[in-house]
Amino acid sequence: MTTPSVHDASPESNESASPTITYHRPTLQLPLPISDIIYSAAGGAHYSGAPVSEDESRPDDQIVTSPASENASSPMDDAIRDRIMADLKELYCCRPSEEIFERTWSPDAVFEDPLVKCVGYAQYAPQWFAMPWIFSNSETISSRVMSFMRFPKRLIYSQMQEYTLRWIGAKKRIESIIVVDLDDEDKIIHMKDQWNGESLSSWFGVNLLRRANALVAPWFIGVPKA
User: Fold this and answer.
1) In whole angstroms, what is the distance from residue 189 CA to residue 167 CA?
2) CA 194 to CA 53: how far, in whole Å?
3) Element (H, E) at 75
4) Smallest Cα–Cα separation from 156: which of 166, 164, 146?
């Protein structure tokens, strides 16, 4: 028998021993504007009601305005907005005065919340002057401007108010979205206090009760004549 020589090896064995090369498609790198995405998300959170301020140590009742509102408003607009919010804070804190209504409210203004719908000074003023009789204390925990527009003239802000009932001392916090419409003299002509941000009921029975409540208060609460 003849012994096979090394030179008799088949070419197939040499090819199977050769190295294998694998080609990978290069990954396409896309530049992502990370900073723009972050600021866009923060802006969206702000207008959806989530706080985006980095200052967690600010006083509770400090008014925080959105950057968009500040950039778009003039110093005169800022003064009008601050005056209205300061006067409304006085009312919500049970400190009504004749000067506030003369300075900030139209005599024919409409005031609405889930309990009342008042038309005119004779109806809305008693609601505010009744508050010191009902509450021993009322404190603005926080407030934040959401929008201040000139066309139409409208201020929208959120507020958390804590009320303490007189005599029994029970405390109640109410979160609101407050919508304020202004006339050409920058006085309030329509104000809606939406508790928990919910729209006021349009049901006939509820509106009838709200109108009745507005008519009853002037019988018991005296106010300065407009």
Assistant:
1) 34
2) 24
3) helix 75-92
4) 146
Find, among 73, 214, 38, 47, the residue nearest to 144 by Cα: 47
Per the CB < 8 A criterion, the answer to whether 69 and 147 are in contact is: yes
Distance between CA atoms of residues 184 and 57, nearest Å: 38
Using CA atoms, how far apart are residues 177 and 11, in angstroms rounded to an integer? 86
pTM strictly above 0.85: no
- Closest listed residue to residue 138, CA positions, set 105, 98, 165, 157: 165
Give me 66's structure tokens: 């959105």
- CB-side exposure of 193: number of CA atoms within 13 Å? 20
| Peptide bond before residue 152 is cis, with ω within 30 degrees of 0 | yes
DSSP 183: -
CA distances (Å), origin 226, targets 9, 27, 95, 99, 103: 117, 75, 17, 10, 12
Determine the longest span between alpha carbons in the chain, in angstroms.
Answer: 134
Q: How many secondary structure helices (H) and strands (E) does the chain include? A: 7, 7
Return the closest-CA partner of residue 80 out of 8, 186, 182.
186
Distance CA 106, CA 45 (A): 35
Packed helices 121-134 and 204-220: angle between N→C axes, nearest 10 degrees: 70
Taking the chain (226 residues) in runs of 10, the rounded mean pLDDT of each run is 44 46 44 34 35 36 40 75 97 97 98 97 97 97 95 96 96 97 97 96 92 94 85
